[in-house]
Amino acid sequence: MVNGSSIPPEAILNPYTPLAFLPPEFSDKYQTESYVYVATFAAYTWDWLMAIPEEYAIVRNTGITAPNIAYFLSRSVVGTFGTCLGTFLTVTPIDNCEMLKYVECGFAEIGVPATSFLFFFRLKAVYRHSRITITIFGIFWLAIAGLSIFIMLGITVGRIPYTQYCFENQARTYNAVPILLTAINDTFFFLAISYHMVRSATVESTWRARTKSFFTGDGLLYLSKALLQSGQVYYFITIGAAISASVLIFSRNIPGAFPNVLASPYFALGSAMACRVFRVVILGIMEDTQVDTLDIANFYCSATSDPRHRYDRNDKRGHSPKFEIFVAV
Asked: What residues does the DUF6533 domain cover (predicted)?
């Protein structure tokens, strides 16, 4: 607008662009939300394509096991829920916005618990002799599986007037419940596994030595160190994303669905990181005769019926038991 004069109609070359039918305070945020969905979809797709050779190696060497099923559920369902459908919902014309949103949220009901289940298997391997610990964390996982319904209940969609493009309505505060619960669950998982790993480290029994072992992995053999450090990478990356997503959702002064813009990237990031941590532990050639490590190795292979994937710490043939997996760096 020049000198307060109105824009002449002939200057508007594309009056039917979807953003023209939204208020100015909504249109910019709608455009930003679309960019975030597209970027998330591209990043997740690239991560998955890069991981295909490693995933093939996992299936080829261990077969169809419960951890592998949880892995591919997290991969495929979160990839569909958090990235593909979210992108289609915001950038392509849709005949039935509500139906697509219900499908997207239905995938969330499967994908979010599947991602958490990967870490439940991880903890169950470390604490396989403690039924109380496994039961407590199993209840946490059931809570995540049940309360993920808030993703579906808390988000509604509308249609941009005179178009077939969809947009999400104002996010409700209880949309943050699955995010916060997953972050709390991850925190307890991280602390429990880290405590077990540091406690088993062959270092001096002092707070200083234990703290140093926590940050550096000193005193831990290869697999134990991989479990500790891969968990640290996952936790410190995803906890920042969880806090950011929750703060936006609770920011009621932001109009439209923009407060919910980081929810999908958070779940996609959590899935990608959890799957990477899973591959780091499974894929590698490791020789580690630590008792806890052998328990972990045997647990991950216990679901396969192939005896070549089982390990016997009483092997008398003069060689160390070997966890034969390929390392993913």
From this structure: 35-76
| Bridge partners of residue 168, in order along the sequence | 157
Residue 134 buriedness (CB in 10 A; 0-12 / 13-18 / 19+):
middle
Sign (positive/negative) of CA torsion 90, 244, 46, 66?
negative
Six-digit token string for 232: 């640290």
How many helices, marked H, and strands, marked E, lie in the chain? 11, 4
Domains in the chain and their CATH numbers? 19-306+319-324 (1.20.1070)
> In the structure encoding, which two tokens stand for residue 293, read together?
């490590």
Query: Distance between CA atoms of 218 and 50, rounded to whole angstroms?
Result: 31
What whole-number distance in Å separates Cα of residue 37 and Cα of residue 84?
Answer: 8
pLDDT tens digits, one per residue of 221-235 = 667 777 777 778 888
Q: What is the share, in percent, of the chain residues with pLDDT greater than 70? A: 77
Among left, alpha and beta (phi > 0; psi -120 to 50; other), residue 318 is left
SS3 of residue 285 by DSSP: strand
Instruction: Determine which of 10-24, 39-53, 252-266, 288-302 has the lowest per-residue pLDDT on average.
Output: 288-302
For residue 148, is pLDDT > 70? yes
Q: What 3-state class would DSSP assign to 313?
A: coil
For 147, other C-beta atoms within 10 Å of its C-beta total 17
97-132 pLDDT, tens digit per residue, is 878 778 877 888 888 888 888 888 888 878 888 889
